[in-house]
């Protein structure tokens, strides 16, 4: 039996070693990730609750925001809880099946979120550039179809990358230099010359993502010129305030992912690599509630009404 076949057959688990094996750093990491995870859950659950119970938050924009929050809850829950437990218990092993499942779910939710962000940019384009036809363009059936297409595209995207990544033979050590199973770190363990298929998928995915991003930029250029024709300075500022956070988050989300997946030095466990991975896996689910929703006036009014109603029931 060859050494290559031996390694391929008996690599039944991986060792996630994203952070230095130091007790103080591990404890600090666990505490920080716990606070981030708690913040993300509270913010996103709040948005889901408000957009569900408040009848004034039933427009397409809030329908998309509700789905974005559901995605973010799932997205951050795939990686952060296990990373916290690994640090607290000092056990960093993950099974082969667990690693494949985590990889699929990360790419699935990331792909779904990116697709939904593109849909949300189209929603803003329709609302600002075609306000008279907005209700016809973004009717309930179209919104449901767009969200369904986003979830489906994420599922296909995740399946393709899992198939490409785990079609290789693993000949290296089972140490993954990351706090979760991701494609670049796993490909670093592959036998020489066997990762060309997945690299092709990565390049094709990045190109497609950039094309979608360019289309989104074009829609925002149209929005920009439409906003400039608004006579009221206050109206222009209000419209810009709803658009700029969206394009900022999409830019950070897309290009941090591209940098990670196209980086040459996969084997290094540098602080920069960890920081970039946090940019597209941890920060978006945590910051999206604040950027998209909790700054929104209607959302703030709904939250205030909900809190006032609860207080009045407790102290009639």
Structural summary, described in words:
This protein has helices at residues 3-10, 23-53, 60-89, 96-129, 134-137, 140-165, 183-187, 196-228, 233-262, 271-281, 283-294, 297-314; strands at residues 13-16, 93-95, 175-176. The protein has one domain (3-314): Up-down Bundle (Rhopdopsin 7-helix transmembrane proteins), CATH 1.20.1070. With 316 residues, it is mainly alpha-helical.
Helix-strand layout with pairing:
Elements: H1 3-10, E1 13-16, H2 23-53, H3 60-89, E2 93-95, H4 96-129, H5 134-137, H6 140-165, E3 175-176, H7 183-187, H8 196-228, H9 233-262, H10 271-281, H11 283-294, H12 297-314
Parallel strand pairs: 1-3
Antiparallel strand pairs: 1-2
Summarize the entry for a quick read:
This protein has 316 residues and is mainly α.
How many alpha or pi helices? Answer: 12
Can you tell me the CATH superfamily? Answer: Rhodopsin 7-helix transmembrane proteins
Low-confidence stretches: 1-9, 265-269
What's the CATH topology name? Rhopdopsin 7-helix transmembrane proteins
Q: What is the helical fraction, as a range of percent?
A: over 70%
The number of domains = 1
Please report the first level of CATH classification, the CATH class. Mainly Alpha
β content, as a range?
under 5%
The geometry reads as globular
Number of strands: 3
Overall pLDDT confidence: 80
Which structural class best describes the helix and strand composition? mainly alpha
Largest pleated sheet: 3 strands, mixed
List SSEs in N-to-C order: HEHHEHHHEHHHHHH
List the strand order in the largest sheet.
2-1-3
Protein name: Olfactory receptor
InterPro entries: GPCR_Rhodpsn (IPR000276), GPCR_Rhodpsn_7TM (IPR017452), Olfact_rcpt (IPR000725), Olfactory_GPCR (IPR050516)
Family: Belongs to the G-protein coupled receptor 1 family.
Membrane topology: Multi-pass membrane protein
């Amino acid at each position: 039996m060859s050494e290559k076949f031996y390694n391929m057959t008996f690599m039944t688990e991986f060792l996630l070693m994203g952070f230095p094996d130091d007790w103080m750093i591990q404890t600090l990491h666990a505490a920080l990730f716990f606070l981030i995870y708690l913040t993300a859950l509270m913010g996103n659950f709040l948005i889901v609750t408000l957009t569900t119970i408040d009848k004034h938050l039933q427009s397409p924009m809030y329908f998309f925001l509700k789905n974005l929050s559901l995605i973010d809850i799932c997205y951050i829950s795939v990686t952060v809880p296990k990373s916290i437990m690994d640090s607290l218990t000092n056990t960093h092993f993950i099974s082969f099946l667990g690693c494949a499942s985590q990889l699929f779910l990360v790419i699935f939710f990331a792909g779904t979120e990116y697709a939904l962000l593109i849909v949300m940019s189209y929603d803003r384009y329709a609302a600002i550039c075609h306000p008279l036809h907005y209700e016809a363009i973004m009717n309930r059936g179209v919104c449901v179809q767009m969200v369904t297409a986003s979830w489906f595209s994420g599922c296909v995207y995740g399946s393709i990358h899992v198939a490409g990544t785990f079609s290789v033979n693993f000949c290296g050590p089972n140490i993954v230099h990351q706090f979760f199973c991701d494609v670049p770190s796993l490909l670093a363990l592959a036998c020489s010359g066997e990762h060309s298929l997945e690299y092709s998928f990565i390049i094709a995915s990045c190109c497609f993502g950039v094309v979608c991003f360019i289309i989104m930029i074009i829609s925002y250029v149209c929005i920009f010129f439409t906003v400039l024709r608004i006579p009221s300075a206050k109206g222009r500022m209000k419209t810009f305030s709803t658009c700029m956070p969206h394009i900022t988050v999409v830019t950070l989300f897309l290009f941090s992912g591209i940098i990670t997946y196209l980086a040459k030095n996969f084997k290094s466990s540098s602080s920069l690599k960890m920081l970039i991975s946090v940019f597209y896996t941890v920060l978006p689910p945590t910051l999206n509630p604040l950027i998209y929703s909790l700054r929104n006036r209607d959302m703030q009014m709904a939250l205030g009404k909900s809190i006032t109603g609860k207080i009045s029931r407790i102290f009639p």
